[in-house]
Design a protein that fits this description.
Layout: H1 14-28, H2 34-43, H3 48-63, H4 71-96, E1 99-100, E2 103-104, H5 105-119
Antiparallel strand pairs: 1-2
């Protein structure tokens, strides 16, 4: 059984990390407490970008101030923090930078608006 890869915040890797961690937890540490499972997952959260996030969460956990009480809640928090929202931001950036025939997406939008306005189009 391969252990989970390290998680360093790469958007496209959030789901991969969570799936691998979930499988490992189910197969190897299913009988452990939720706090042990959370600690195990967080031990794989490493890298400059996520260290501050992890340290803040560990501080909240140690003070009993965290809303994360189960490993599923941790996975959900990770998806919200690094996955789904970040993925939407990435898609928006992709839309902004689409090029076709040398023009950027926003140039086409502006051109469309101008032509639509001039033509009386109200689609």
């Amino acid at each position: 059984m391969v252990k989970s890869p390290l998680f360093s915040r790469k958007m496209e890797k959030v789901g991969v990390f969570i799936n691998a961690a979930y499988l490992y937890l189910r197969m190897k540490i299913i009988e452990k407490s939720e706090s042990t499972k959370i600690a195990w997952v967080l031990s794989y959260v490493q890298g400059r970008v996520v260290e501050a996030w992890k340290n803040n969460l560990l501080d909240e956990l140690s003070k009993g101030e965290s809303e994360v009480e189960t490993v599923e809640e941790l996975f959900s928090k990770m998806k919200n923090e690094f996955g789904e929202i970040a993925e939407k931001e990435r898609k928006v950036e992709q839309l902004r930078t689409i090029e076709k025939g040398g023009k950027m997406c926003n140039e086409y939008v502006q051109e469309f608006k101008k032509i639509a306005k001039e033509s009386g189009y109200e689609g």
